[in-house]
């Protein structure tokens, strides 16, 4: 979100400076390219973060951040601690691209067993900023390692 | 979709009014802020609908609506009726944010058992507006309650 | 991505031509409608490709392509060949809407059995263009036909 503000403010200053030096026709041309660059930045560019051969931890495009599936920091803990450390990693990734959990758009939660639904929800509900819950879905599916009990895919505005 | 049209038309009238009163330099400045506000409205703002501590039923950002996972109105019915009432809830949520099923972008369907694939598809195919099918995926996964046979996550343009 | 460039370049030419013929007020009005049409094209329009009664193979909106779930070309092959032919179909669909695998945003992979995780990853890692991995999640879920071992949902910038 900060990024959009940044180019806008800088853009205003650039236009104000230009106004002293140029003709109206030049200004219209500059104005076109200013908006074109804004479109290009927000719509065409893709920013990848923490990329390896398999995944990028975050991909940002058109002011939306896509997080790769997050799991617990320690797969040998119970559902409560796995959910807590998983969501701490979501926080960290969101902050790393200039957004936070108040700007989540969607979340898909995979649980190894629906027996853990209530315990997971206790941690989730406490973690979601009041009034800022994303659109959520939760289904039962096993993860890459058999000890993992929960995984989450998140998208957020940024 | 209506919203974008609304600010545009109002914007034209505001610009026309302004033209009588202001200098060209003022107009260029106004024009800049007009486009900036348009960007801000469509790209930076997030609208959450029917939000509780766990989920928002719909989140709208950048002209895309994200629906939370929808399930049947009554989990004690068969796959046909569960699919029908689930899709009726999707319709209701889409309409609540000014869009409809002709503008769906993607749909992920979770079935408790693939034995229900054909019966679910019969209802789905009849419900999708001709020529407007979203990009769909369907996999087998159990839901939060054991009697639920089907769940859907939808995104739509709005 | 090509499309955005196209209207921009054409737009510049149209503005330059207009400058010879029109007043500044006309130019400001034209400029408004030029940007409005750009918004309309990228934000409001939806392009559906290879649409049938159940799904569109690709839906494009706001410079994002949503692919329907892709599976192997031949479900009677092993996980290596199923992953290869599935990703070849992803390539084909991305190219059909003017983008490619270097511009993927997110990928959700469903595996019938996590026993196939390592073999699937070998093919995946070799296929992903270096430095361009999407945000990926991978969970265990069965597909519509029992012989299918892997399915993928992809979004990409275009």
Order of helices and strands of chain A: HHEEEEHEHEE
CATH architecture of the largest domain in chain A: 2-Layer Sandwich
Number of domains of chain A: 2
**How large a portion of the residues of chain A is in β-strands, by DSSP E?**
25-35%
CATH superfamily of the largest domain in chain A: RutC-like
- How is the biggest beta sheet of chain A arranged? 7 strands, mixed
| Radius of gyration of chain A, CA atoms, in whole angstroms | 21 Å
CATH topology of the largest domain in chain A: 60s Ribosomal Protein L30, Chain: A
Provide key terms for this protein.
158 residues; alpha+beta; 60s Ribosomal Protein L30, Chain: A
Write the layout of secondary structure elements.
Three copies of one chain form a homotrimer.
Chain A: H1 2-21, H2 24-44, E1 46-51, E2 56-61, E3 64-67, E4 70-71, H3 79-96, E5 104-111, H4 117-127, E6 135-140, E7 150-157
Parallel strand pairs in A: 5-6
Antiparallel strand pairs in A: 1-2, 2-3, 3-7, 4-7, 5-7
Helix pairs in contact in A: 1-2, 3-4
């Amino acid at each position: 979100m900060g990024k959009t503000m940044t180019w806008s403010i800088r853009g205003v200053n650039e236009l104000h400076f230009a106004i002293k030096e140029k003709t109206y026709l030049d200004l219209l041309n500059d104005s076109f390219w200013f908006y074109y660059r804004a479109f290009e930045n927000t719509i065409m560019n893709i920013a990848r973060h923490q990329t390896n051969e398999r995944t990028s931890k975050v991909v940002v495009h058109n002011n939306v951040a896509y997080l790769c599936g997050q799991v617990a920091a320690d797969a040998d803990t119970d559902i409560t601690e796995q959910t807590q450390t998983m969501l701490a990693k979501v926080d960290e990734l969101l902050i790393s691209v200039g957004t936070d959990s108040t700007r989540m758009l969607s979340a898909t939660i995979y649980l190894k067993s629906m027996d853990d639904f209530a315990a997971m929800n206790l941690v989730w509900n406490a973690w979601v900023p009041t009034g800022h819950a994303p659109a959520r879905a939760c289904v039962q599916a096993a993860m890459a390692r058999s000890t993992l009990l929960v995984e989450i895919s998140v998208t957020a505005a940024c």
